[in-house]
């Protein structure tokens, strides 16, 4: 048993699993979700490879039935207004293309990011027999490590800003007159 565990640890090391886990941990804390993709490799010394995917463009769809079994994993990339999808089920891999509207990271408030698959390019059997995309959630409400603190940080910023404004207004209200005479009834 120990030799099998040692061999598995060597495979994990060679597969890039540690680097993928480090990237996934970064995503996990930043956006509340991490996604790992594992695929077979032809090398006998490294029989599989592991990658961390961008969780903004990779996800797992779960069944609504009790147990919520994964039914498909999706990864897409966008280039020049076009989206390319890989959709994995336990039996089939679908390759699709589609259109993109908006930007994934944007400061515009009214600009939604919408990706739509419009054409099936090809299908192939999933020889693995399982969905190679694994999703990890930071918590049950899919929030990142700092999101719950944002309202508190905003209030601290507001109080600090108001305090600075108050000091500035107080300083502006001071007038010092040296060796000056003012008429009577002047304030």
Task: Itemize the secondary structure elements and their pairings.
Blueprint: H1 2-15, H2 17-31, E1 33-40, E2 48-53, E3 58-62, E4 70-79, E5 82-88, E6 92-101, E7 114-125, E8 133-137, H3 150-173
Antiparallel strand pairs: 1-2, 1-8, 3-4, 4-5, 5-6, 6-7
Percent of residues in β-strands: 25-35%
Rough outline: elongated
**DSSP helix fraction:** 25-40%
Distance between the termini: 92 Å
Unreliable parts: none
Structural class: alpha+beta
- Kindly report the average pLDDT value: 84
Mind telling me the C-alpha Rg?
Answer: 28 Å
Question: How large is the count of helical segments?
Answer: 3
Q: Give me the count of strands.
A: 8
Major beta sheet, strand line-up: 3-4-5-6-7
Order of H and E elements:
HHEEEEEEEEH
Specify the biggest β-sheet: 5 strands, antiparallel
Explain what you see.
This protein is α+β, with helices and mostly antiparallel strands and 187 residues long. 28% of the residues lie in helices and 34% in strands. The chain is built from 3 helices and 8 strands. It has a 5-stranded antiparallel sheet, with no helix packed on it. A 3-stranded antiparallel sheet has the order 2-1-8. The radius of gyration is 28 Å and the shape is elongated. It starts with a helix and ends in a 14-residue tail after the last helix. The model has no long low-confidence stretch (mean pLDDT 84).
């Amino acid at each position: 048993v120990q030799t099998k565990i040692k061999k598995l640890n060597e495979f994990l090391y060679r597969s890039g699993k540690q680097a993928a886990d480090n990237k996934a941990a970064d995503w996990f804390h930043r956006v509340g979700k991490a996604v790992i993709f594992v695929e077979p490799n032809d090398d006998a010394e490294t029989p599989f490879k592991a990658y961390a995917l961008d969780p903004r463009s990779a996800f797992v769809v779960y069944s609504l039935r009790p147990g919520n079994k994964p039914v498909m994993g999706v990864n897409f990339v966008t280039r020049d207004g076009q989206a390319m999808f890989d959709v994995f089920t336990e039996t089939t891999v679908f390759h699709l293309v589609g259109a993109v509207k908006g930007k994934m990271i944007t400061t515009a408030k009214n600009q939604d990011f919408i990706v739509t698959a419009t054409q099936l390019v090809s299908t192939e059997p999933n020889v693995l027999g399982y969905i190679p995309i694994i999703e990890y959630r930071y918590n049950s409400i899919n929030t990142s490590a700092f999101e719950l603190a944002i309202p508190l940080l905003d209030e601290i910023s507001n109080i600090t800003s108001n305090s600075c404004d108050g000091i500035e207004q107080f300083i502006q209200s001071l007038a010092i007159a040296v060796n000056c005479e003012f008429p009577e009834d002047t304030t």
